[in-house]
Amino acid sequence: MRATALATAGVALALTPALARESTTPAQTPAPAAAQGDEAIRLATATVARMTIAEKLPQLLNVAPAIPRLRIPAYNWWTESLHGALGARNTTNFPEPIGLAASFDAPLVHDVAGAISTEVRGLHTLARETGRVGRIGTGLDTWSPNINIFRDPRWGRGQETYGEDPFLTATMGVAFVRGMQGPNPDRPQVIATPKHFAVHSGPEGTRHEANVFVSPHDLEDTYLPAFRAAIVDGRAGSVMCAYNRIDGQPACASDLLLKEHLRGAWGFTGYVVSDCDAVKDIADNHKYAPDSATAVAAALRTGVDSECNNASTADTAGLETRYREALDRGLISEGDVDQALIRLFAARYRNGDLPGLAGAPAAIPTGAIGSPAHRALALAAAERSMVLLKNDGVLPLRSGVKVAVVGPLGDATRVLRGNYSSGLSGPPVSVLEGLRTTLGASQVTLVPFGESMTDGDRVPTSALRTPDGKPGVLARYYNPATPLPALFAPGTREKTIAAVRYQAKPVVTRIEPDVGDRNLDLARVADVHRTVFTGFLVPPATGRYRVGLSGSGGTLELDGRIVSDRTKARWNDLPGMTTIELTAGKRYPFTVTGGGGDLVWKRVSATPDADLKRAAAAADVLVAVVGLTSDLEAEETGVTMPGFSGGDKTTLDLPADQLAMLDQARATGKPIVLVAMNGSPINLAWAKDHAAAVLEAWYPGEAGGLAAANILTGRTNPSGRLPLTFYRSVADLPPFGDYAMTGRTYRYFKGTPVYPFGHGLSYTRFAFAPLTVTPAPGGAETGLSVATRITNSGERAGEEVAQLYLDFPDAPGVPRVALRGFQRVALRPGEAKDVRFDLSPRDLSAVTPDGRRMVMAGRYRVTVGAGQPGTGVPGQSAAFTARQSAELPK
After folding, report:
1. Distance CA 200, CA 257 (A)
2. Is 383 designated active site?
């Protein structure tokens, strides 16, 4: 969910919340029975009872306006922190969730979520201090984690998930929820919002109108387990419903999902928020409702409490009229409205946004944002996420080796962040910089790539000078001269931002470290404003550069001419870049008008083939850093180019120019260490056949380049495992739009992958002792424990990921094999540790074709090892028998 671009002429649109435009007698809302035992519900009920209907209706939108007479501040439910908090300060950027999944380390995910939670609370404190509450990124809830199942490698948003396996996703999802909310879910530090509920995993281009048909088996077996775990075990306080229909009903008006499962079988008592414009889609795209009033009524009556509407990124003025019409037509009652608001206000009391609830979390100081401890955790997370897929002995790189870094991503930094990330993060470290840190700058040479890559890196402070020669840029913030209530009165939302006139003098002038949107750090800057950045671009080396702007809105004038115009761009369009020859040390004057984007550049070569040959001749090893970017695989983009369409992939192959570069690198005869950066499975058959080593690095976060270098040089032992199957071709898979699981993921795929789910190598060796299987007193069908002993039989310290898989009794619909446990074990050379897995009946269960979850009577096989059974990795297996079948609740 992303905001529709509300910016033209380089100005980010954000409206001051309007006060209620009518005054009526507050309705008397009876307290629900739950209030008698829940102080948050009691407080919320009392608050809602004091509100007029005019005050109530705007609270149903993602931007909840202030109610001054009740001393209720504005609140924006839209907060993103998928793998790092997004806000006006430099927050910590952790690996993309697909990388965190590759760690197979639930305690790590818990700690990462806890760090992010702290920073989200710090941003809330900042908003309180500056008076900028009500803006995106200032709330004490978060629209994370994404626990959809990455069922098809073409999906552009799969990078946001924890992979293709329901058990792994559920375990990581629960760890994230608990880390984000803290030890007491009744007093959450930050409310977690698992998304997108449910059966939602592409294609991006049809998500607003798709009608997904799913069998009862696949629904229970694949698409719901992670959500059930997040709600029942993790006690998430919120859930986000998805865009698409499921068996004819929109997800945000689904009786099956919201009534039968969420609030029925799972007993969920929190609040439901819609994906952005998903309620609007109910009428506009799904045609499930005849008009907008009926659409909001369908969502509200089914259980949606807060509607995210892309037209309300900072204001709700006029959007509440749909609810007013639904009331007037009898489609909803004031009691329906009150029920939703009580849930929402109870959440604000629980997380401490509203005072009065004993034990609510205390405020976090802004100094906690981007702390050294969080930066160190980002590096550790990146190291544990990377997966060594192949090593012919070239790794670890020895001291004194001469390395040539080739490929488009060798010196790249924007790629590290993946999607749902902010340029305002810790200093990003490229693979080039990481290798120069670990091997020495004189040992590592960069070979600039050609001009075809779409990504650009934020121009750092070191290459920027203010007009008077200081590091950084001069930023001037201008407030509007036009009275906003008159300009944006109800019914005038379609007025263009060009109608705004700004004051002649800036309200704030200060030096910023770069062209980044930090206006929420400034109390005097209005929500609607104009930003002008001026300074000099000073390149560190002579050469050819692609320079431009990313994001939407704004123009870049460089050295006297406009080189990038983003005034008509969407927020996730490819960066607008122009190729320019620049001279080292020369000062190139520039002006960026408009905020919300980044000044980006990329060093490129006019003769990359010749450059590669020259560098290879002097190098011992070529480190080829290749892959994709989150500009190409992404959320609902307008990008159509070979291999990509609307954010999704149409092929698993690397871009053609990267494959050509790899062939040329191979022709030099030097060993190739391939480092892949991507958020989804790609065809690594070439690398498997021709590279000396392959390291899957994902989108590894701000410290990714140093993490990769630490692994390549042996400072860190590789320990990640694949949370996905790496296929050879989309031809091996069913159609993308078919949500049936037959033939998908390691559980149901019958072909031969390039690299299997769970695969990952180490620089040391581990051995597993024979298994001891101990059924519970009531028999194996009531649970059992599995024990083994793991020994580090190699010469290096390292961490093994012990993976437990089940083979089930022969029955229709059961998976080929299924992960049911994993543990990370750190061992010194020669050290051994006992490992035990306790399996519950749910762990032992499978799903019948009609959707019943059963522990099935019959013979099982359990395997504990370094990967899937049958893939040639170390491990041990044992058999056990369940004497009788038992059905489990939904």
Report:
1. 12
2. no
